Amino acid sequence: MKVMKFGGTSVGSPERMKSVAELVAKSDEPVFLVLSAMSGTTNSLVEVGDYLYKKNPEGANDILKNLEKKYYGHIDELLSTEEARADAKEFLKSEFKYIRSFTKDIFTSFEEKSIVAQGEVMSTGMMAAYMKEIKKDAVLLSALDFMRIDKNGEPDMPYIREKLAEVMKNNAGHHIYITQGFICRNSYGEIDNLQRGGSDYTASLVGAALEASEIQIWTDIDGMHNNDPRVVEHTEPVRQLNFEEAAELAYFGAKILHPTCIQPAKFAGIPVRLKNTMEPDAPGTIIDNVMMRGTIKAVAAKDNITAIKIRSSRMLLATGFLRKVFEIFESYQTPIDMIATSEVGVSMSIDDTTHLSEIVDELKKFGTITVDKGMCIICVVGDLDWSNVGFETLATDAMKDIPVCMISYGGSDCNISFLIKSVDKKRALQSLSDTLFKKK
Ligand code: ADP
Ligand code: ASP
Ligand code: MG
């Protein structure tokens, strides 16, 4: 069994859906197919929720009217028999009726999550209808029957494993299993989700639960590129990454992967392959346990970072000082991304600023605090083992014209990170590409 996940663009039109169906049907082993919503749909549903929070059902209904019309058009293109079209339109009608049922009453995050979940329910329903029309042996499974998060919002892996095994036993022997990415239930049994972009996470979690041979993430680009293609020109695909390298890149801004999606695959030892739906024969990127020596692989950048500096001549580096500082961040459930210490100061960076003012208030007990917003972490990934003489110098050399606020090196064997101002991001990424990856 292999897992194949297709993102929003890959199922973004009836034509794309048809090529996904063909691609999947060609597989010589059974496929567990995870689909995102058609591109743009989740954003529209989030907007619907926004209007309803603001008590403007008219605004919500305007969006829904357009979306519904668009979807009916998709059905006419996707399916050819009148019977199949009528069934699919009936399904969409009940979907939009369900979404509209939330436009009349009080609106909370529960209703919002139920609405946002329908993008994936619709795309998978349409794919199942198309598979039926082209007579492929496919069965549609509801992710809500086996995907669950716990009280902390973390995947409940024992539950997922048990429920998915049950579902698979009751549906044994098919060639294609279709399910929704992104959506799940929470510990109260309510509809919830794995955060935006979370379909990758679904793929990795079900891959681990099913002990799949491979987890394939199909998207609109031929694998992980060595720099952010949205910012830098002439980026190139990286053919192989170690799990750790991929996790660092995903966490530090390589949007091709959801930040959490590497961990379950790594834990289960299942390779992840990134592939391009538009160019299925291109090799893509394989992510596995192999650590290639002697190369710097890629660069990524994460925006909206805030730097917090504590200056103190009294308490720094006294036993227990860092613990007290970390406890403040922990009590506000705010992860620290980067840290640097010296005899007279500690600098940290965070990206979740929900509790910034409370954190700063409490830190003032320990010293003078300065806060810099609008920062960006640049992360360079590859074989950066400390015994490799000169590798970190290559990265720092590329940054020689950029004001650097903080550097983190040695935290792992595969990464060096720089904290800079966001306004310098493009220049920094371009310079790193020119220095590290330019063909000689
Ligand atoms: P999907 O909808 O299939 O999940 P995403 O939009 O989430 O697709 O991810 C694919 C996009 O990630 C690409 O179109 C590309 O613009 C962006 N991206 C950012 N950094 C990288 C990178 N280092 N390598 C490849 N793609 C990247
Ligand atoms: N449809 C969801 C989103 O747009 C999940 C995903 O595509 O991964 O965020
Ligand atoms: Mg994505």
Q: What's this model, at a glance?
A:
This protein is α/β, with parallel strands linked by helices. Helices cover 39% and strands 22% of the residues.
CATH 4th-level superfamily of the largest domain? Acetylglutamate kinase-like
CATH hierarchy, class of the largest domain: Alpha Beta
Please tell me the overall pLDDT.
95
Instruction: Identify every distinct bound molecule in the structure, by name, code or SMILES.
Output: adenosine-5'-diphosphate, aspartic acid, magnesium ion
Span between termini: 42 Å
Instruction: Please state how the strands of the largest beta sheet are arranged side by side.
Output: 3-4-2-1-7-9-10-8
Tell me the number of helical segments per DSSP (H or I, 4 or more residues long): 14
Helix/strand order:
EHEHHHHHEHEEEHEEHHEEEHEEHEHEEH
Query: Per CATH, which architecture of the largest domain?
Result: 3-Layer(aba) Sandwich
CATH topology of the largest domain: Carbamate kinase
What structural class do the secondary elements suggest? Answer: alpha/beta
* Low-confidence segments: none
Protein model, in words:
- The chain is of the alpha/beta class and 440 residues long.
- It has two domains: 2-220, Carbamate kinase (3-Layer(aba) Sandwich), CATH 3.40.1160.10; 297-436, VC0802-like (2-Layer Sandwich), CATH 3.30.2130.
- It contains 14 helices and 16 strands.
- The chain has helices at residues 14-25, 41-53, 57-78, 82-100, 109-116, 118-133, 157-170, 199-210, 243-251, 262-268, 321-331, 356-363, 391-398, 425-436, and strands spanning 2-6, 31-35, 138-140, 176-180, 183-185, 191-193, 215-219, 240-242, 272-276, 285-288, 296-311, 338-341, 345-350, 368-382, 404-409, 415-421.
- The strands form three sheets. An eight-stranded mixed sheet has the order 3-4-2-1-7-9-10-8, sandwiched between helices. It has a six-stranded antiparallel sheet with strand order 12-13-11-14-16-15.
- β12 (338-341) and β13 (345-350) form a beta hairpin.
- α2 packs antiparallel against α3 (57-78), α2 (41-53) packs antiparallel against α5 and α3 (57-78) runs antiparallel to α4 (82-100).
- It is globular.
- Aspartic acid (ASP) is lined by residues 7-8, 36-37, 42, 119, 181-182, 196-199.
